[in-house]
Amino acid sequence: MTTYKGINGFAVQSVASDPSPLDEGQVWYNNASYAFKLATFSTVNAWATGGNLPSAVNGITAFGTQTATIAFGGGYPTTTLSYNGTAWSSLPATVANGSYYAGAAGIDTAALKIGGEYSGTAYATGVESWNGSIWTSSPSLNTGRSFNAANGTQAAAITTGGQTAPSPGGTNSTEIWNSTAWTASGNYPASRNGMYSVGTQTATLCFAGGASVSTDSNTFNGSTWTAAPNMNTARYMLGGAGIQTLALAYGGLIPPVSAATESYNGVTWTSVPSLSVGRRSYGSSGSQTAALYAGGDAGPASTNSTEEWTGSLLAVKTITTS
User: Fold this and answer.
1) How many domains does the chain have?
2) Cα–Cα distance measured from residue 187 to residue 174, given in angstroms and rounded to the nearest whole number
3) Looking at the domain assignment, is residue 213 inside a domain?
4) 149: pLDDT confidence band, cut at 50, 70 and 90?
């Protein structure tokens, strides 16, 4: 007779409470509730309306999680905003050097503001550190840039690409931060601006970008970039969320502005339901299963709308005979 152990090589585990974390397809017996259970994906994959920003804004930058996001810059030159999953509120903290189209790395209590654009072609080398309450000056980039991809942590960040002087079309330079200084690292495979990146300094995924609109995605291991699978929709100035192997890309400029959303599982990009409002220019945070996009240029005008993404989630299902 075929048994579960014969098929899988191990017996069903008997436990007093449901295990955590879960793996897809995991089966166990809960001896407190006398039930066999299965970890399986519940597919939601939908954008929903969140709390509006105080006003329509373009060029804003955000970081954190869907329920704990910090945003700054753009149409709020020195203002810092906080989002709790329901509503935005202004914080007393002031950004010393407000800018448009900056990069950011970190979480809501420990992050970096990286570069940006002050006016026209004034590309910033400035970096500021956020501790959850105040912004303070931090050592500068070697190359001023805006529309730069950035990710990682406050102590170990990376930024690549972006608009730079004298050629605003884009750069391929990459810089990494070791909590003391920024140093040059492996060049990106192409000169780009308006890319988005997610992950850590030693496990980054960077995707899309201009000056020629691209479907490229590439991974970084701390020193070298390697080609990854192409996206379905070419775009730049987009939003994103997640990690190197579980990412989400959304919005951007094709042109015109795009509402397209794609999910990445480390192997392939898959089109999933689109944003309600097509837009470009950052204001994004979160993870592949719980992301956020706020503000941006919705073409032809800026928007104050926030959208929240709920992706495929692992859920516990009780196994029955019915």
Assistant:
1) 2
2) 5
3) yes
4) very high
Beta bridge partner(s), residue 314:
41
What is the DSSP code (8-state) at residue 303? B
Q: pLDDT exceeding 70 applies to what percent of the chain?
A: 93
> What mean pLDDT value characterizes the chain?
92
Q: Are 306 and 71 in contact (CB under 8 A)?
A: no
**Rounded-to-integer distance, Cα 67 and Cα 309, Å:** 11
Lowest mean pLDDT: which of 33-37, 41-45, 141-145, 181-185?
A: 41-45
The string of pLDDT tens digits covering residues 64-86 is 999 999 999 999 989 999 999 99
Nearest CA-CA partner of 173 in 181, 182, 184, 157: 184
The pTM assigned to this predicted structure is 0.88
Q: In terms of residue numbers, what domain contains 24?
A: 4-42
Residue 243 lies in a domain: yes
d(CA 26, CA 34): 17
Residues in contact with 156: Cβ distance below 8 Å, sequence separation at least 6, in sequence order = 176, 177, 178, 179, 200, 201, 202
314 within a domain of the structure (yes/no): no
Given the structure tokens 């955590």, which residue do they identify? 20
Q: Are 214 and 234 in contact (CB under 8 A)?
A: yes
Residue 318, domain member (yes or no): no
Q: Domain check: are 164 and 299 in the same one?
A: yes
CA distance 138 to 99: 16
- The 3-state secondary structure of 152-190 reads ECCCCEEEECCECCCCCCCECCEEEECCCCEEECCCCCC
